[in-house]
């Protein structure tokens, strides 16, 4: 399922990241890669704050739809 | 600098403490510029205590991929300039992601040293790092530092200098065996490539990097077979293979050196975020924070210091440390009670109040309070109003003028404390002493000192505001603001990141426009640059205050309405422009690191404040100085009794400036202010917005109705910004065409907004004309149509 609908506070493993090459690379640079553990810390009307590799990243809903967990 | 013997590049993630480390390494020996061709800031400085070492501060980056201009600038520097060493700052609270960049830096064949920052925080949170083991496994020397506390920095710089002298670069084997073999095979293909760069280019060829120099890109077809073989074996594309293996390598390196306490616990920062970015609380909290920032910088500290600058430093003078101010005020109040507020004056003012003459009540209140400063202000504003009404029966000017004449026995400033004369007074004395002629004296005093002084008067307020904004940026809150605003801005075709430039633009448009650099997507950045200056900047506040007090009796809705107008212009522009071909396409998806909240260092805040403030002062010293002289020439050359010449006491109407204003004032007729002074003020606003105020005395608005006054305000707030900000737009757009487009858009929007306000307003008050009203309604309809029409991209493929 996409990260956008994940439960808050639960840990998930990223399985696949969609989107174009540029977006994928940018996400990878911030630590979003297949196999990485991710959890949603907070949600604000669709935009998410996620914990990835011990950093907090704010991520838009559209992008969170492309990260499959 | 060519005379330095060793160059060390400072590289690291954003928010890793790089700026703080750079500041402690170089102290004040810094040079700030731009990387050639792009608007990425370039900073370099000489190492403190060793002038032979030059520290080159690379932009904060997450990787060396070719996607953002920061990354491209960094890798070009590292490849082309071949620095002697890299000092890689690594935030130990985010080891995995920070080391991801490290693995890429190590491929460049440059001696590298790691400065492990914030190890104290890691230990505090109960985790631990075995630095020695980590250093051995990576094959890189490490120094534990705290950039914030300034510890370990000498050791880090010593290690970096030693590494540079040793010329030995670490070469860790990062990837799995088959990938390593493939890379070595590609390396084998490369001829005429410097030995130390072979690994770097092999990896980039493997990733099918699109930004390689031609001689390297030529090998792409030869490498293709090797790459596809690996891709088939891994069932993944080559770029992802490299990325994943980097993270796997990091995980294996960290295994056993990095003990982590229980995961999944909420940090303090997370708890703050649950409140600050909460769906319901986020906006009220943001509003409260901004209100506080403005309240402090504009109405308290800012006003206090600005008054001192305007009235003291660039006025008559001031008391050193304020000693003597109270005694002098008391003496002045006594003098006014005895000599100015005579029974006759009081009676006239009372009569004027009864007759309901504008401002008479302010004068009456000042007399009742025995406050000479309030009286001076009210009399300055409204005194002539009393003179003119009923043929001067309420006039108090004879008494006041006699009592305050130059030879009147007024209390002298010097008698009450250590009085420091203001710059104009000092300059005047100096010029008198030199015996220069009137022309030069007027040029220096009325042109240069008055013009530049008026602008510099806003500097203190701006500095206070910049200090607050720097604090909000450095503590991590600004990133949250972008995050919270994104969901609102996205509806208007802008990214949340566009909000930060707007926020900084409330202080000054120049750093505001410059702050748009953090927006990666070019379309979004251009749009932000075009719209940022719609928000009233610090220099537009006096215009708002002027109109509010002259026409609306200081009504409290005028100032908020100006901000509302600015925001509306940004939003409407966003929606309309997004539907044109030029800007079609979704705003780039929002993804942004939210650094943990922390207290910033005072030095960092002061430095940021100084950099932004100083760039403004430099503008005041160049563009504004030149323009002040031109305006002074225009207003002192003109026609006296039919003959052209120089005359310092020229009426504005008979000056060259007046003639120009007269010739072009028709442009503003549909907006309701086809008046010489309003026209000149608008033109002068291009130089610096606060110059608008300089042209007007309050009662010069007599010719203007309230509606025309508000239309004048709307036009001046929204039209092209001052020259300094236009210069900033030109730099950020990096294109003359786009700069003109931005200015054209701003002026057009301003004209239409003022037109609609004036024409529709006139229609409602029953003074309008039909044609204007119809046109205004048609324009409204056009704007609404432009806003609701379908997105351009819906016909084509989604960008």
Keywords:
heterodimer; A: 69 residues; alpha+beta; SH3 type barrels; 4-stranded antiparallel beta sheet; 2 helices; 6 strands; globular; B: 799 residues; alpha/beta; Rossmann fold; Helix Hairpins; 7-stranded mixed beta sheet; two-stranded antiparallel ribbon; 35 helices; disordered C terminus
Question: Could you describe the 3D structure shown?
Answer:
- The complex is a heterodimer of chains A (about 70) and B (about 800).
- In chain A, a hairpin with a 2-residue loop joins β3 (about 35-45) and β4.
- The N and C termini of chain A lie close together (about 5 Å).
- Chain A has a 4-stranded antiparallel β-sheet. Chain A has a two-stranded antiparallel sheet with strand order 2-6.
- Chain A is globular.
- Chain A has one domain (about 5-70): Roll (SH3 type barrels).
- The mean pLDDT of chain A is about 90.
- Chain A is of the alpha+beta class.
- Chain A contains 2 helices and 6 strands.
- With about 800 residues, chain B is an alpha/beta fold.
- Among the domains of chain B are: about 5-165, P-loop containing nucleotide triphosphate hydrolases (Rossmann fold), CATH 3.40.50; about 175-260, Helix Hairpins; about 325-420, no CATH class; about 630-790, no CATH class.
- Chain B has 35 helices and 14 strands.
- In chain B, the strands form 4 sheets. Chain B has a 7-stranded mixed β-sheet, sandwiched between helices. Chain B has a two-stranded antiparallel sheet with strand order 7-9.
- In chain B, α3 links the parallel β5 and β6.
- Chain B is elongated and about 100 Å long.
- Mean pLDDT of chain B is about 85; it is low at about 795-799.
- β5 of chain A pairs antiparallel with β12 (about 590-595) of chain B.
């Amino acid at each position: 399922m996409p990260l956008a609908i994940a439960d808050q506070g639960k840990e998930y493993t990223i399985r696949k990241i969609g989107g174009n090459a540029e977006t994928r690379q940018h996400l990878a640079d911030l630590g979003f890669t297949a196999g990485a553990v991710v959890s949603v810390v907070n949600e604000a009307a669709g935009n998410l704050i996620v914990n990835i590799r011990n950093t907090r990243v704010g991520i838009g809903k559209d992008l969170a739809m492309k990260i499959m967990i | 600098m060519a005379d330095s013997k060793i160059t060390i590049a400072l590289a690291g993630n954003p928010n890793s403490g790089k700026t703080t480390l750079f500041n402690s390494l170089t102290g004040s020996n810094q040079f700030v510029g731009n990387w050639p061709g792009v608007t990425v800031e370039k900073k370099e400085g000489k190492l403190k205590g060793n002038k032979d070492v030059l520290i080159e501060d690379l932009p904060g980056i997450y990787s060396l991929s070719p996607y953002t201009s920061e990354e491209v600038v960094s890798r070009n520097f590292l490849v082309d300039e071949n620095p002697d060493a890299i000092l890689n700052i690594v935030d130990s609270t985010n080891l995995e992601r920070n080391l991801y960049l490290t693995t890429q830096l190590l491929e460049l064949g440059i001696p590298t040293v790691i400065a492990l920052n914030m190890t104290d925080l890691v230990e505090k949170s109960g985790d631990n790092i075995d630095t020695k083991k980590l250093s051995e496994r990576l094959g890189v020397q490490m120094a534990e530092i705290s950039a914030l506390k300034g510890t370990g920095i000498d050791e880090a710089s010593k290690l970096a200098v030693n590494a540079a002298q040793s010329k030995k670069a670490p070469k860790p084997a990062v990837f799995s065996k088959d990938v390593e073999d493939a890379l070595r095979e590609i390396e084998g293909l490369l001829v005429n490539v410097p030995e130390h760069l072979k690994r770097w280019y092999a990896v980039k060829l493997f990733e099918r990097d699109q930004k390689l120099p031609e001689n390297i890109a030529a090998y792409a077809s030869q490498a293709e077979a090797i790459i596809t073989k690996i891709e088939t074996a891994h069932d993944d594309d080559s770029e992802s293979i490299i990325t994943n293996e980097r993270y796997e390598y990091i995980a294996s390196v960290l295994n056993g050196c990095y003990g982590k306490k229980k995961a999944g616990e909420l940090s303090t920062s997370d708890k703050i975020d649950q409140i600050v970015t909460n769906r319901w609380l986020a906006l009220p909290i943001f509003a409260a924070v901004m209100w506080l920032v403005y309240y402090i910088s504009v109405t308290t500290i800012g006003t206090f210091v600005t008054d001192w600058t305007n009235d003291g430093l660039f006025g008559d003078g001031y008391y050193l440390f304020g000693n003597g101010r109270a005694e002098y005020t008391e003496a002045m109040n006594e003098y006014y009670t005895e000599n100015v507020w005579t029974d006759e004056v009081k009676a006239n003012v009372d009569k004027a109040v009864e007759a309901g003459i504008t401002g008479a009540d302010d004068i009456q209140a000042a007399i009742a309070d025995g406050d000479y400063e309030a009286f001076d202000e009210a009399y300055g504003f409204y005194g002539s109003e009393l003179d003119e009404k009923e043929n001067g029966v309420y006039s108090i000017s004879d008494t006041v003028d006699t009592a305050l004449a130059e030879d009147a026995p007024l209390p002298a400033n010097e008698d009450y404390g250590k009085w420091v004369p203001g710059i104009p007074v000092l300059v005047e004395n100096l010029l008198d002493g030199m015996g220069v002629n009137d022309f030069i004296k007027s040029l220096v005093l009325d042109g240069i000192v008055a013009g530049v002084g008026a602008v510099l008067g806003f500097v203190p307020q701006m500095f206070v505001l910049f200090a607050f904004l720097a604090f909000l940026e450095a503590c991590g809150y600004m990133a949250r603001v972008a995050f919270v605003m994104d969901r609102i801005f996205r509806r208007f075709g802008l990214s949340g990141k566009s909000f930060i430039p707007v926020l900084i633009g409330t202080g000054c448009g120049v750093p505001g426009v410059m702050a748009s650099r953090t927006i990666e997507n070019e379309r979004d950045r251009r749009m932000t640059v075009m719209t940022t200056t719609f928000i009233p900047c610090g220099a537009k506040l006096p215009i708002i205050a002027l109109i509010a007090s002259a026409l609306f009796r200081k009504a409290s809705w005028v100032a908020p309405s100006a901000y509302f107008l600015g925001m509306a212009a940004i939003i409407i522009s966003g929606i309309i422009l997004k539907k044109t071909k030029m800007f079609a396409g979704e705003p780039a998806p929002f993804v942004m690191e939210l650094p943990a909240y922390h207290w910033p260092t005072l030095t960092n805040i002061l430095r940021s404040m100084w950099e932004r403030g100083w760039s403004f002062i430099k503008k005041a010293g160049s563009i504004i100085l030149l323009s002040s002289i031109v305006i002074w020439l225009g207003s002192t050359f003109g026609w006296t009794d039919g003959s052209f010449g120089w005359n310092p006491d020229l009426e504005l109407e008979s000056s060259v400036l007046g003639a120009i204003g007269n010739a072009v004032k028709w442009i503003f007729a549909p907006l309701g202010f086809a008046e010489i002074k309003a026209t000149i003020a608008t033109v002068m606003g291009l130089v610096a917005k606060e110059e608008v105020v300089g042209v007007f005395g309050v009662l010069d608005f007599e010719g203007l109705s309230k509606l025309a006054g508000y239309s004048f305000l709307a036009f001046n707030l929204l039209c092209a910004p001052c020259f300094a900000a236009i210069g900033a737009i030109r730099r950020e757009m990096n294109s003359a065409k786009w700069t003109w487009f931005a200015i054209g858009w701003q002026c057009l929007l301003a004209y239409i907004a003022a037109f609609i306000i004036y024409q529709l307003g006139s229609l409602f008050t029953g003074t309008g004309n039909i044609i204007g009203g119809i046109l205004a309604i048609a324009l409204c309809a056009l704007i609404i149509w432009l806003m609701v029409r379908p997105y351009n991209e819906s016909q084509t493929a989604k960008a």
